[in-house]
Design goal:
With 140 residues, the protein is of the alpha/beta class. The strands form two sheets. Strands 5-1-6 form a three-stranded parallel beta sheet. Strands 2-3-4 form a three-stranded antiparallel beta sheet. Helix content is 27%, strand content 18%. The relative contact order is 0.16.
Length: 140
């Protein structure tokens, strides 16, 4: 285990309730949303959407925390907004502690694990992919 990776305490629902009861008003965290990473985060008819957005909305419903989604068009813009204090969090970042450290960011525990898969045309022999062309999204 990498000793540089921070550990985070887990709070019981009662501890969360007691903490929220001490706050003087609602919290608002601005979350940077890279809009070109479906299904994690994207815009649907101009509105934030995706797995990360649904997850954060669920947290909001259960805790009373309020999130404002701030769209970004590139990772460079994400970094600029975080460095300028325009956002408090970045949704859906790849879990890479070294990258986060280079970008001067902290990380939470992983909330989503996924496997990469290749989707093949039925006519393709999956045991012989030599010479085949694969299309990748720009953000893969």
């Amino acid at each position: 285990m990498n000793s540089r990776i921070p550990t985070f305490p887990r709070c019981s629902p009662g501890e969360v309730e007691r903490y929220l009861g001490k706050l003087s008003g609602p919290l608002l965290d601005r979350i940077d949303l890279y809009t070109e990473v479906p299904p994690l985060e994207f815009e649907d008819q101009g509105q934030p959407a995706g797995i990360a957005v649904d997850y954060l909305r669920s947290i909001s419903e259960k805790t009373g925390l309020t999130f404002e989604f701030v769209p970004a068009d590139s990772t460079a813009q994400l970094d600029q907004m975080a460095a300028a204090g325009e956002v408090e969090m970045i949704a859906g970042m790849t879990y890479d502690y070294d990258l986060a450290q280079k970008r001067n960011l902290g990380m939470t525990r992983v909330y989503l694990n996924s496997q990469f898969v290749a989707v093949l045309n039925k006519r393709i022999d999956e045991t012989n992919l030599s010479g085949k062309v694969m299309a990748l999204s720009e953000n893969s």
